[in-house]
């Protein structure tokens, strides 16, 4: 067969149900365990031989999410896994790209817990190229994925260099340096509760603890979300120059991540965060919370349950080195310069991800020529 043909997802593959494997039954080693939105743990025995494709079956924001596993794996009962009906017609990796391009997340039903039904997925019409063309498309997209992976690896490496440099400088100290527990260096105030349904298009800027991990670097001048201006008097506010610290996380590594607020107005702070008011260089303080020195100290004070927390009382016990102000600014400037490079690498990776989506769509609907795509990548 040398021509593309029209078919449906259901004619090419089946979506099989994963099986229950509760967290307390996983031994944490060996093969990945997949839920509806990716890896949720590890277990020494795998249920499915790899390579394979996992599709989110239910869950808000994860129904229809498609993930590829290079090796053997176990899908739990919030996910489907793919079985190919005839491997002479379609390869597993091409099936992954086909399902990604099908935008299964848009098919999720919204009654009760959002979920993807197999019958709706099976009805999706797709154009299937012959296997040699499938393999060429997989290679083209793989080349883009390799570029993205390399950019992310370079960014991660640079962050490790930054953190190592911070650890070295802060541990070494110097003339005129002192040290003090946070309780002596400033004041900590817990934020006040608001919920995502409170958000509006504009108004009082607000910082939610989850955004500190996903949306902010070491400092920020604008918020990504807002509350009604009428909330101002009932909220606890960070002033320009304050540092906002996440008091809650899903892991020990992230709890205590901080962002220096450098905007022009006060901002509301969520009650799973702390506001640190001080007279130091704000970026220096924020970078201290990213340093190995802080990471090492905080492990003595975090409660390592399903949700990891650190209290204000324990944060106040953390000892911070305090160099002269000009040295604080020099250290934060050094870290800032590295962060600029990291941001540029992340931005290029994000640009390539967007280009990848358009490239895959164009290759599968034949608006992009395979030969020309091969020459460009």
From TrEMBL:
Family, per entry: Belongs to the type-I restriction system S methylase family.
Originating species: Micromonospora solifontis
Keywords: DNA-binding, Endonuclease, Hydrolase, Nuclease, Restriction system
Keyword DNA-binding belongs to the record: yes
Keyword DNA-binding carried by entry: yes
Alphabetized Pfam families for the sequence: Methylase_S
Protein name as annotated: Restriction endonuclease subunit S
Record-linked InterPro entries: Restrct_endonuc_typeI_TRD, Restrct_endonuc_typeI_TRD_sf, Type-I_RS_S_subunit
Ranges of residues in domain Type I restriction modification DNA specificity: 1-153
Gene Ontology terms, MF aspect: endonuclease activity
């Amino acid at each position: 067969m040398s021509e593309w043909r029209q078919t449906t997802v259901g004619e090419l593959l089946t979506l099989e149900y994963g099986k229950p494997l509760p967290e307390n039954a996983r031994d944490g080693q060996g093969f990945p365990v997949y839920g509806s939105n990716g890896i949720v743990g590890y277990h020494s025995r795998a249920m499915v031989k790899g390579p394979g494709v996992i599709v989110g079956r239910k869950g808000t924001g994860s129904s229809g999410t498609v993930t590829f596993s290079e090796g053997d794996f176990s899908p739990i009962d919030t996910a489907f896994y793919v079985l190919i009906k005839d491997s002479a017609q379609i390869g597993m990796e091409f099936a992954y790209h086909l399902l990604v391009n099908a935008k299964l997340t848009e098919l999720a039903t919204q009654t009760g817990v959002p979920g993807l039904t197999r019958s709706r997925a099976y009805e999706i019409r797709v154009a299937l190229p012959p296997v040699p063309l499938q393999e060429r498309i997989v290679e083209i997209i793989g080349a883009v994925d390799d570029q993205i992976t390399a950019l992310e690896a370079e960014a991660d490496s640079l962050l490790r260099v930054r953190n190592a440099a911070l650890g070295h400088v802060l541990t070494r100290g110097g003339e005129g340096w002192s040290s003090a527990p946070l309780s002596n260096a400033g004041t900590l105030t817990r934020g006040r509760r608001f919920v995502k349904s409170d958000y509006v298009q504009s108004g009082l800027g607000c910082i939610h603890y989850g955004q500190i991990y996903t949306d902010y670097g070491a400092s920020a001048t604008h918020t990504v979300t807002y509350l009604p201006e009428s909330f101002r008097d009932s909220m606890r506010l960070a002033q320009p120059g304050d540092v906002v610290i996440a008091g809650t996380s899903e892991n020990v590594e992230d709890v205590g991540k901080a962002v220096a607020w450098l905007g022009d107005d006060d901002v509301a702070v969520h009650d799973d965060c702390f506001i640190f008011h001080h007279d130091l260089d704000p970026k220096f303080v924020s970078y201290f919370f990213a340093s190995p020195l802080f990471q090492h100290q905080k492990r003595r004070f975090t409660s390592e349950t399903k949700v990891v927390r650190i209290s204000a009382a324990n944060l106040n016990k953390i000892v911070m080195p305090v160099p002269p102000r000009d040295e604080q600014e020099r250290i934060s400037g050094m870290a800032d310069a590295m962060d600029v490079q990291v941001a540029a690498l992340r931005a290029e990776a994000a640009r390539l991800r967007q280009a990848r989506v358009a490239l895959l769509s164009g290759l599968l609907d034949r608006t992009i020529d395979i030969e020309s795509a091969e020459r460009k990548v």
